[in-house]
Amino acid sequence: MGRASKRKSDFESSASAKNARVDSVRSASSKAVTKLQERVDELYNKYANKTSELMDPEGIEALCSALKVDHTDVRILMLAWKMKAEKQGYFTKDEWRRGLKALRVDTMNKLKKALPELEKEVLKSENFENFYNFSFRYCLTEEKQKCLDIESTCLLIDLVLGSQYRPQVDSFTEFLKIQSDYKVMNMDQWTNFLRFCQEISFPDLQNYDTCQAWPLILDNFVEWMKEKKM
Amino acid sequence: MTVYGKSGPIEFNVGWSEFMEKGISRLKTILDGNEGTSFSSEEYMFLYTIIFDMCTQKPPFDHSQKLYEKYKECINEYIMITVLPSLRKKHNEFMLMELVKRWSNHKVMVRWLSRFFSYLDRYYIARRSLPLLKEAGLKCFQDLVHQELKSKARDAVINLINQEREGEQIDRALLKNVIDLFIEIGMGSMDYYEKGFQDAMLIDTSAFYSRKASNWIVQYSCPVYMLKAEECLNKERERVSYYLHSSTETILLEKVHKELLVVYTNQLLEKEHSGLHILLKNDKVEDVTRIYRLFHKNTKALELIANMFKQHVNSEGMILVQQAEDAVGNKAGNAGGAQEQVFMRKVIELHDKYLGYVKKCFSENFLIHKAFKEAFEIFCNKAVAGSSCAEFLASYTDDILKKGGSQKLSDEVIEETLEKVVNLLAYISEKDLFAEFYRKKLSRRLLFDRSVSDDHERSILTKLKQQCGTQFTSKMEGMITDLTLAKENQNHFQEYLNNRQVASLGMDLTVTVLTTGFWPVYKSSDLNLPAEMVKCVEVFKKFYQTKTKSRKLTWIYSLGTCNLKGNFEQKSIELILGTYQAAALLLFNDADRLSYSDIKIQLNLADEDLVRLLQSLSCAKYKILNKSPNTRSVSPNDYFEFNSKFTDRMRRIKIPLPSVDEKKKVVEDVEKDRRYNVDASLVRIMKSRKILGYQQLLMECVEQLSPLFKPDVKLIKKRIEDLIARDYLERDEENPNMFKYLA
């Protein structure tokens, strides 16, 4: 039993030491994780409604002023996107955790600093379409709502596309307000407007072909633009 | 048998000079037209035998080769010495005559000579595959005479032809002979005729007619030019039959046709004061027929003709449209839609007229018929004063099929007209609109017994079914069947009344039960029936329950008629009026004076119905009620009294209730149906194709719906978007112009 057992016990002890070390590392990292989580949750609780445990519009507004960002700013929308938030005006704890984890932040400062990065990320072409479509769905507040009223649509388009496609957005919103055929916009029309901005040369509209399956509202828009020119 | 003493083989020179030459000079004399016409048998046999002997002698005395050469030499000599000089002396027509004569002679010469020498044909020539005597003989003429003179001959012939073309008389027989020469000289090949004569003749012909045409096109009007052209073609055809070879006909006529007609097609047909459009306008049937006759084989010309015809028909149609617009605008002259009737009648006449043209002048040519149809499709789909042709056609048909229509027509004429109506429907793209208007008017005819004849009603439905399919007429057929069943039903009802001990109704009641779905939708109102009628309705309801428990009856009083007896002071008069009107009048059995609101409350009718009915009783032709104040229209403050002093010379009068204008509703209903039809069509197509491009989907949808109407592209686009929103379809992710069916 001599050496062997000693070794065994050595081994055992070293193993357990190792385990203890691993454990301590683990607990240290998990402690760190838990610490992170705690901070995130703390931040959440700061703005969440005490009774419902949801961050409601009031809370979000407070959050925004803390971030020194207007609550109608597009970056809040981007944040909602990152969180995969489902209901406009509300963040759940899970969504909050998800978002902040993806951004790798746990304090207000870090969050503030992460916003420019987030903007860049969203504007990347592989993400933008996703964000664009998300923003429409996000605004459909009622359950089973499929369409957005024209006024809200105009605001949304301006918010989401204004920086990239200012002339198209301005013309289109002007048109939407003047026309009376459509009182609401649906998802199909929404997604195609982005495609319109990306593919059709503006303002000459040379390569627009009415014989293609563009939504009728865009056909009408193009017709209106052409008449305006005359 | 020998005539000479046979002392040994015949020497060639001896044989030739002693015997043959004599025979040959004899032949020449014959040819010269002197002395005798023919060789006798003995003479012939003698000469033949000399040759025979000279050929069959043993070498070196077989003179076959020499004889063959001599044969040819002899002929050539004759030609050189006699024939050619005489030909060279003559010119033009005379030269031709001489040529013909010499050729004829030559043939005779060759015939005789080859008979004499014919033994050569059998052995010497055959063995060496040399040209036969006859061939060789004719070839001599070909080589020496024809070769030298063919151009002169050709030109002389062409000259004569042109003279004839200018109207002079020429010797046709001579020309025929010359042409025959050209043909015969080929000895089986047409080359001498074609290359030696025909080609040049054709070039000359083209030049000739080209010159003529350039003059005529300026000088003559289109119809006159066409006459001349036809004349020329006929003359050329004649020419071929008289003296040219038949194979020339096609190409000759083609050239003439080209120079006279093809080159000048547009200038002719579009001539300002006499071109095709003018001829059509002035109904110059013969001229138009001639134009078709002469031009129809030429594709471009035919297209032009078809186009001009289409434009003409269309402009005639548009004139009618404009006339109707103007007339309808001037409403004073348009009582009862008379102008629409006139318009429709004129359109039908126009159709008959120009269909006649298509059949007679244009031999039902496919392209022209198509142009005709297209012309009608254009103007038949123009709106006239805001209404479509579909509506007019339905009104026109209604007028024919109803009693008291504007025209009194015999059965035969009615049938014919119905046929024409259905033919016209083919051009109208909004067939569904026609169907709806027709159905509404059919309903009125059937329910108020205004149809002229059941047979005609069924007949037109059969025609419509043939042209537009079963679905088109199914509801209308159902309506007619309903009425037949209703009569049966009424009989059963009578039996029921007789059998049960039902207390008498107090009046005659006829109920017509309609199948919902076949008939247009009529709104029912909760009219408060007079007590007398309530009982009748109840009794019928009970009766109906005995027939079927599964159906619900909805009473449409607005369509009912009542016969009331009005006990006026002077005399009783039977009043035939609508149920609403009757209900209103019966109120006056219990009250002398009623206000508008009284009546309204008691009857439980809407204002628009009430005003109309009271107006018909108090402000129209027959004043059954007195209204105060006695203004021309009914207002809610009016009071009404029974007019006991009313009278009329008739014992029975109809008090009609003017019908509401259904037009707006029909148009709305049809539009609704169209949206539904487009949806159904799109879903049908996508369900079977699963994935389809936008353009293709559009095309198939339009095609599917064409028997009913021509769907607007915007409408289809809108319906597609609607279907996307309703999750029937989605756009393909990769290609936004493709759609996928969502099960």
UniProtKB/TrEMBL annotation, chain A:
Signal peptide stretch = none
PROSITE patterns cross-referenced by the UniProt entry: DCUN1
Q: Which residues form the DCUN1 domain?
A: 35-226
Region Disordered, residue ranges: 1-28
Gene3D superfamilies, from UniProt? Cullin, PONY binding domain, EF-hand
Q: Highest taxon of the source?
A: Eukaryota
Role of this protein: Neddylation of cullins play an essential role in the regulation of SCF-type complexes activity.
Q: Which protein are we looking at? A: Defective in cullin neddylation protein
TrEMBL record, chain B:
PROSITE patterns reported for this sequence? CULLIN_2 (PS50069)
Gene3D superfamilies from the xrefs? Answer: Cullin Repeats (1.20.1310.10), Cullin, Chain C, Domain 2 (3.30.230.130), Winged helix-like DNA-binding domain superfamily/Winged helix DNA-binding domain (1.10.10.10)
What InterPro entries does the database record attribute to this sequence?
A: Cullin, Cullin-like_AB, Cullin_homology, Cullin_homology_sf, Cullin_N, Cullin_neddylation_domain, Cullin_repeat-like_dom_sf, WH-like_DNA-bd_sf
Gene Ontology terms: biological process: jasmonic acid mediated signaling pathway
Keyword Ubl conjugation recorded:
yes
Ranges for the Cullin family profile domain? 388-618
Q: Does the keyword Methyltransferase apply?
A: no
UniProt keyword list? Isopeptide bond, Ubl conjugation, Ubl conjugation pathway
Q: Which family does it belong to?
A: Belongs to the cullin family.
The record's annotation in PANTHER family points to: CULLIN
Protein's UniProt name: Cullin family profile domain-containing protein
What lineage is on file?
Eukaryota, Viridiplantae, Streptophyta, Embryophyta, Tracheophyta
